[in-house]
Write a structure and sequence with these properties.
42% helix, Glycosyltransferase 28 domain protein, transferase activity, alpha/beta, transferase, 7-stranded parallel β-sheet
Length: 410
């Protein structure tokens, strides 16, 4: 039996989601031949412990260096100070990096991995190379385009790219060109072309509607048009996103625009319905009284509810995350309005805008105008989205498992 180590970078949820979709396929195709170990820290480590509660001995907690949260994504100022000084109760970043590399190296030594899969953890690439262990790195960016205001991040981009290069195989979790959503985030030099494989999106597949319709599904099923407004990210990012959404909703142009706001927080107290009468109801009460609603707030949507909302909505408002863009543009062929947090998001939304799949928005006024543009030019967006959807590759996990199997055999 082969032993595989999976190293998941704990900043954000995208790395975890991709790796868990991959794990499902590994269990389907290789479960009798491999023993999987996973390493991360913080909230992602806790999610791993919860998911793999029957085999906690294969889940390893190693603190990885991550930025400090700011009002909108990472705080460059605080993160820079934290390099040598303790900030916000966190030890100096330099000591965290040193300890994390030492602990990962010890884990390599004790477990004797036959192959490692790294999603976002570039330090593990370097350790694997030094030990002559085959290494797969999963990504959707390599030397991404930076905007003028972010020039100070360039040294970090170079450092990360040099460590990505150390992987045996670089897996791009996206459709092959010319349908690559993260194209503007990829700037591979010619010398790496043979290492790179565009395997397709790490989709979790078609959602099976196996349970009865929920109240929220029943409430929206006969509505002709509504937008799906997603709130994701860290606590401060979620707060600012909601404030911007509210400012847009209060404008005269948006007062009649139906919307569902997903808060991505398992807090039932967030669930409520705003009627056109100005009153607030619970979701079940709104359904029972057949309330003509204008806004539905929901803390957390189940996979089935999310699939229903995406199938019925007119458009989706998102931050530009790679996973969400694939699900919405490719899986549902719905236009997006993208409000970016990071340059990575900006590049991906701009790519979609350049192909008339969505609109990049950087201000509340832009967002309001974008909603109007999508309504007015919906047929134009739909034509382009249908073509993109036909070429949307969802076989990322299966193709990656085939690559891993070949690497282990060789």
């Amino acid at each position: 039996m082969k032993k595989i180590g999976g190293f998941i970078y704990p900043w954000g949820n995208g790395h975890f989601t991709r790796m868990m979709n991959l794990d499902n396929t590994i269990q389907d195709m290789m479960k009798d031949n491999v023993e999987m170990h996973y390493t991360s820290s913080g909230e992602i480590y806790q999610k791993l412990i919860q998911k793999f509660s029957q085999r906690k001995d294969t889940i390893h907690n190693i603190e990885m260096p991550t930025p400090i949260d700011g009002k909108k994504g990472p705080s460059v100022a605080l993160s820079s100070l934290n390099f040598l000084l303790p900030i916000s109760g966190r030890p100096p970043l330099l000591s965290v990096v040193t300890n994390y590399l030492k602990k990962e190296a010890r884990l390599y030594n004790s477990q004797k991995f036959d192959l490692v899969i790294n999603d976002g953890d570039v330090g593990s690439n370097a350790i694997a190379l030094r030990r002559n262990i085959k290494c797969v790195f999963i990504t959707n960016q390599f030397r991404p385009r930076l905007w003028a205001s972010r020039f100070y991040l360039y040294p970090g981009v170079l450092y990360v790219s040099k460590n990505i290069e150390k992987a045996t195989k670089i897996i791009v979790a996206d459709s092959p060109p010319p349908y690559t959503i993260c194209e503007y985030n990829l700037n591979f030099p010619e010398r790496l072309k043979d290492k790179v494989a565009y395997v397709g999106h790490f989709s979790n597949g078609v959602v099976t509607h196996s349970t009865p319709k929920s109240d929220i599904e029943k409430l929206i099923e006969n509505v002709d048009s509504f937008g799906y407004w997603m709130i994701t990210g860290n606590k401060s990012t979620k707060k600012i996103t909601l404030e911007n959404y509210k400012r847009a909703f209060y404008s005269s142009e948006m007062r009649g625009e139906r919307r569902i706001i997903s808060h991505a927080s398992a807090d039932p107290s967030l669930d409520k319905v705003l009627g056109n009468d100005g009153k607030t109801y619970s979701i079940s009460e709104a359904l029972e009284k057949k309330i003509d609603w204008i806004q539905i707030d929901v803390g957390f949507l189940s996979e089935q509810e999310k699939d229903t909302v995406l199938s019925l909505c007119k458009y989706a408002v998102i931050n530009g995350s790679h996973t969400a863009m694939g699900e919405i543009l490719g899986g549902k062929a719905k236009p997006i309005i993208g409000i970016p947090v990071y340059d990575e998001h900006t590049n991906q939304i701009k790519w979609a805008q350049d192909r008339n799949l969505g609109i990049l928005s950087t201000t509340v006024k832009h967002t309001i105008k974008a909603v109007s543009l999508i309504h007015n030019d919906y047929n134009k967006y739909q034509e382009n989205l249908l073509e993109f959807s036909r070429n949307y590759s969802t076989g990322g996990t299966k193709n990656t498992v085939k690559i891993i199997s070949d690497m282990l055999e060789k």
